[in-house]
Amino acid sequence: MTPRDTILQVTNLTKRFGGLVAVNDLTFQVREHEVMGIIGPNGSGKSTTMNLISGALKVTGGSIILEDHDLTSLPPHKIARFGVARTFQLVRILPHLSVVENVIAGTAFAHKARWGAEAEQFAEALLERLELGDKKNQDIGSLTYIDQKRLELARALASEPEILLLDEWLAGLNPSELRIGIELISQLREEGRTIILVEHVMDAIRSLCDRCVVMNSGKKIAEGTPAEVLSDKEVIRAYLGDE
Amino acid sequence: MNSGEMKFLVIGVVLALGAASIPIVSDGYWLSIATTAMMYIALSTSWTLFSGPTHLIALSTGAFFGIGGYLVGSGMSDYDQSFWLMAIIAPVVATILAMLIGLATLRLSGVYFVIFTLGLAEMIRNLVSWVQNNFLGSRGLYVLTDFTEAHIYWMLLSVATIVFLAGWLINRSRLGFALRIIGNDEQVARHVGINTAWSKVILFMTTGFFAALVGAIVAPRYSYIEPNVVFSPQLSFLVVIMALLGGIHRLWGPLVGVIPFTLIWEAISISFPNSTTLFLGLSFLLIVYFIPNGFVGLFENLTGRMRK
Ligand SMILES: Nc1ncnc2c1ncn2[C@@H]1O[C@H](COP(=O)(O)OP(=O)(O)OP(=O)(O)O)[C@@H](O)[C@H]1O
Ligand SMILES: [Mg+2]
């Protein structure tokens, strides 16, 4: 494999909530076309890290650089326009918009903005790709859970992101849906998308991630390929607790 | 333009022409009611441009309306300016004020926004009264023009038409789409690249502009302007009630609410002049409990069910 350029550089990232340090001096890089996993026990600061990158939360210390752009203290809409797109741990679709409008929402204000007929065609093509094509006229309230997740992903992809943040996108799916979900993300990976994946599902981590960062109590405790980190003693201890 | 929009355009033009002929067929009492209704159509529809998609209930219409009336009164009475000049200046002042209020209230949501706008409108009313009484002499402000009721009516009809056109354009634009996304989920809106702050402020400025313009145009109707009266909090509530009664998720919703409510309100004000506030509260409760989506919501439910 040829070494690829770093696209996202996170340096000494810190987030405090009052006395609690949710993310503590975290440093890592994401390279172009790479799927990087962030794993760790509940409450270890994974979602907080995602929220800091997307601008949902304000950074306490450290820096976040995407390509040449310093995202550290930018508001979320500016970060989005530099090409950061995300899904949320608790799925967030736009309930009073149509299925197609939900996807257009992703492109209309993005860095390569589309609008009007062009946006509509683009959204429909994306829905087709995510196997939501036959549901594009369906009442949004009648979408199943996995379809809501797909729709949220379609919205994120509609912005043609430089980097895609997926916060437990696979959580809550049943075993057969999970297979479909993993297959979908692996297709994105083959397309060469750059993704940060927060996951608890270890099968997904093993099959999807090029590299992983393991967090515990806000700190990075290991980094490497999935096989390396999952056999790391400290990682095992973090997951099983001190015996 | 698709065929649905074409249909609405044709209906709109027919309605506007029909409305324009009212002063020819009637004068006196019915024209005066039609003028009041036209004033509320312009106010409620422009109010809905902002509050419809964002679900932020603004109770500041009276303040902007008051600025319109007061500046026309003050400019004509105290500074010998023409009505037309003041009718241009007043909306500009209101738009700037709306921008400041908008920027100050951005972080507020739900009931805090409601209370803040109401409080602010009251503050402006008291401030203007105080300045007027203590510094500008408490002699009244007279708005003497040659306008007849029909002139005022036609001007209001023009403003209402412009409000509808503006609303139609906004709804088709990315700004309108942004507002709808904000109303659905502001967090998502920010993360798809929407500058939520400015989107909201721009729409709020639009409603402030139109409210002041309407206030300026109806000022000659009152002849005598008193700050305490033109900065009317009751007007703020009436505008909200009429819009909710019609339905605020469609551009033409408020129109459907204004016409019956203006008639009912006229009857109430004549029969029970001392308990209008009571009826105001009562209508508000009844609408929120029984027809939360307004007449348009009822109508769409019915036609939706018939189709199934
Ligand atoms: N907005 C907030 N205010 C205060 N504390 C917060 C906030 N968000 C997260 N925290 C705290 O920060 C810590 C890290 O939370 P975070 O959501 O990042 O964990 P996580 O690794 O995503 O966990 P999970 O696997 O359960 O999703 C937790 O202790 C959490 O309670
Ligand atoms: Mg989490």
Can you offer a commentary on this structure?
The complex is a heterodimer of chains A (243) and B (308). Chain A is an alpha/beta fold and 243 residues long. Chain A folds into two domains: 1-83 and 162-243, Rossmann fold, CATH 3.40.50; 93-161, no CATH class. Chain A has helices at 46-54, 76-81, 99-108, 117-129, 145-158, 175-190, 202-208, 226-230, 233-240, and strands at residues 6-17, 20-31, 35-39, 61-66, 69-70, 84-86, 163-167, 195-198, 211-216, 219-224. In chain A, helix 3 crosses helix 4 (117-129), helix 3 (99-108) packs parallel to helix 5 (145-158) and helix 4 (117-129) crosses helix 5 (145-158). The model of chain A has no long low-confidence stretch (mean pLDDT 91). The mean pLDDT of chain B is 86. Chain B has one domain (3-231). Chain B has a two-stranded antiparallel sheet. Chain A binds chain B through residues 54-56, 75-77, 80-81, 85-86, 88, 92, 94-97, 101, 104-106, 108-111, 113, 115, 155, 159, and chain B through 174, 177-178, 180-181, 183-185, 187-188, 190-196. The structure holds adenosine-5'-triphosphate and magnesium ion. Residues 17, 20, 22, 40, 42-48, 89 of chain A line the site of adenosine-5'-triphosphate. Magnesium ion is lined by residues 46-47, 89 of chain A.
How is the topology of this model organized?
The complex is a heterodimer of chains A (243) and B (308).
Chain A: E1 6-17, E2 20-31, E3 35-39, H1 46-54, E4 61-66, E5 69-70, H2 76-81, E6 84-86, H3 99-108, H4 117-129, H5 145-158, E7 163-167, H6 175-190, E8 195-198, H7 202-208, E9 211-216, E10 219-224, H8 226-230, H9 233-240
Parallel strand pairs in A: 3-8, 3-9, 6-7, 7-8
Antiparallel strand pairs in A: 1-2, 1-4, 4-5, 9-10
Chain B: H1 3-20, H2 22-25, H3 29-54, H4 61-78, H5 83-105, H6 110-134, E1 141-142, H7 149-172, H8 174-184, H9 186-191, H10 196-222, E2 224-225, H11 227-230, H12 233-246, H13 253-271, H14 276-290, H15 294-307
Antiparallel strand pairs in B: 1-2
Bound molecules: adenosine-5'-triphosphate and magnesium ion (MG).
